[in-house]
Design a protein that fits this description.
Helices cover about 20% and strands about 40% of the residues. It is α+β, with helices and mostly antiparallel strands. The strands form three sheets. A four-stranded antiparallel sheet has the order 3-1-9-10. A four-stranded antiparallel sheet has the order 2-7-6-5, with no helix packed on it. The radius of gyration is 16 Å and the shape is globular.
Length: about 170
């Protein structure tokens, strides 16, 4: 029996430079779930289940938002962890930019949760793993060119399937 389909809006970030950096962190030694390059993304809004009518409405809204935004650069310059630093639940590459915060404000203007922009690279700490120590990372840039509505598919790889894509600064 298939679970309800869940959806989210994100920026795909299939950066080989970030993947190479993640590889040097020995993530499989510490985490049960390590993300692949194809799964790298920066979530802007998570929905959970969406009816077909809601999906269509969001596709139209994404068209309007994308039309008003030009591609922009994100600089990933730090590791972000959620949970205890020495045994985090989640680890990702962190970033910030004015354009990113403006985009989130358009997509989720009523959010009450703080937005912590990051690309998750691993999660679910291995109970048997030694304490994790991190060091500073080199800065990596990525040009954001599109918005994507993804469907979560936990039983296959990659776990996230694009349902709708639209390029920034263009009309469909």
């Amino acid at each position: 029996m298939r679970q309800e389909r869940h959806f989210f809006i994100a920026l795909p970030i299939p950066s080989k430079d970030l993947a190479n950096l993640a590889e040097r962190l020995s993530l499989p030694e510490y985490f049960r779930n390590v993300y692949t390059l194809e799964e790298y993304h920066l979530t802007l809004r998570f929905f959970g289940p969406l009816e077909e009518k809601e999906q269509q409405s969001w596709k139209q809204q994404l068209q309007q938002i994308a039309r008003m935004m030009e591609p922009f650069v994100l600089r990933f310059n730090r590791l972000i962890t959620f949970g205890r630093d020495e045994r985090p639940r989640v680890v990702g590459f962190g970033t910030e930019s004015e354009e990113l915060f403006q985009l989130v404000e358009q997509i989720d203007p009523n959010s009450t949760r703080p937005f912590v922009p990051h690309v998750t690279i691993a999660k679910k700490w291995r109970a048997e793993a030694a304490e994790w120590k991190t060091s500073p990372i080199r800065s990596i840039e990525w040009t954001v060119r599109e918005l994507v509505l993804f469907e979560v598919r936990p039983e296959v790889s990659p776990r996230y399937e694009p349902v709708y894509r639209i390029h920034l600064g263009e009309e469909e």
